[in-house]
Design a protein that fits this description.
Layout: E1 4-20, E2 27-41, E3 45-49, H1 56-63, E4 71-76, E5 79-80, H2 86-95, E6 96-99, H3 113-123, H4 130-143, H5 160-172, E7 178-182, H6 190-207, E8 210-215, H7 218-224, E9 227-232, E10 235-241, H8 242-247, H9 252-259, H10 300-304, E11 310-313, E12 316-318
Length: about 325
């Protein structure tokens, strides 16, 4: 049985809109995260994937209480973080850190690398004295593959991949157990992406970190995730072990995303699924199944009823009226692991 470090239950976030809806006095609102539930085990990597604007980054910030949820709960080590005192929440913030997407905008250009990496040590009083602080910074830089000489330079002196290593060093400085990686390689070249993913895996093996790895590139996710959650318009439409989701995707949106992943064997049979239309506005999510306006299997029931996220195979769940073991699932394309 998995030992859960983080658990969320029916988590939701609505951002109030500034514009009035046509022919009404009501104002539009964006339902960025809508009733999401899952858990992350100790030492596990759960990847959350989906197109831009589906609510992935908002979800990551909700888990760290960087923004407050509209509804639902976040539990860290079994405790509802919304009910914690300021002192208790401070300890949670030490244990839960974040690696940001933009390695250029997430580091202050006015501070040296030593000042950036040492900031968590100062905030949480984890090192005393200048010598102790510098020694710890050197140790952290070494762990992420940077030389000690980097500490007195500014971020502008480094490449994007090196800057992301600095961001990772800052994230692990306080000795966290849980790290939200918000698209940490999307702004990097492909060759550098592999290096950063390998670094994250090495650190996890050495330190036992749990990761929530947010991404839109399923090829990257395949190398780091233990489980995969697919998100569409603020909702989880499929979640399960990586091998199951890649080998036998049950939701048509997951199938479409996987069909777009380049295949290493050019001679292998491969069918590309092109979805019609655009992603609806999150301020006007379709009734019933939110994916129905683009789904090739949509029927009348999809307009009327929102499909629940239900288990369709051991550990694998999908929010689709026609997910296996329904006979209609046999009409869907299959993918090789």
């Amino acid at each position: 049985m998995r030992d859960d470090l983080v658990r969320i239950e029916r988590l939701g976030k609505t951002f109030d809109g500034a514009t009035r809806l046509p022919f009404t006095q009501a104002r539009s609102g964006v339902r960025a995260v809508d009733g999401v539930s899952f858990s992350v085990g100790r030492g596990e990597t759960l990847a959350v994937v989906g197109e831009s604007g589906c609510g992935k980054s908002t979800l990551g910030r909700l888990l760290l209480r960087l923004i407050e949820p509209s509804d639902g709960q976040v539990f860290f080590e079994g405790r509802d973080i919304a009910a914690l005192s300021a002192r208790e929440m401070r300890e949670v913030r030490r244990q839960a850190q974040m690696v940001f997407q933009d390695p250029y905008g997430s580091l202050s250009p006015r501070r040296t690398v030593a000042q950036i990496v040492a900031e968590p040590l100062e905030v949480f009083a984890l090192a005393t004295g200048r010598r102790s602080m510098r020694d710890r910074v050197v140790e952290l830089l070494t762990q992420v593959g940077l030389p000690a000489s980097a500490m007195d330079r500014h971020p502008r002196s480094f490449s994007g991949g090196q800057r992301q290593r600095i961001g990772i060093a800052r994230a692990i400085a306080a000795g966290p157990s849980f790290i939200v990686c918000d698209e940490p390689v999307s702004a990097l070249d492909v060759s550098v992406q592999a290096q950063i993913v390998n670094l994250l895996q090495d650190l996890q093996a050495a330190k036992g970190f749990s990761y929530l790895f947010i991404a839109h590139d399923l090829a990257v996710v395949r190398h780091i995730a233990d489980r995969v959650a697919v998100m569409y318009l603020g909702r989880i439409v499929e979640i399960g072990p990586k091998r199951s989701v890649y080998a036998t995707p049950q939701h048509p949106y997951t199938q479409a995303l996987l069909s777009a992943v380049p295949q290493p064997d050019p001679d292998a049979a491969h069918r590309r699924i092109v979805l019609p239309g655009d992603v609806p506005s999150p301020s006007r999510i379709p009734s019933g199944c939110s994916f129905r306006t683009r789904c090739p299997l949509a029927q009348e029931v999809c307009t009327r009823d929102r499909p629940p996220l239900r288990e369709v195979a051991p550990g694998q769940s999908a929010a689709c009226h026609f997910a296996a073991p329904n006979p209609l699932s046999a009409e869907r394309p299959s993918f090789s692991p």
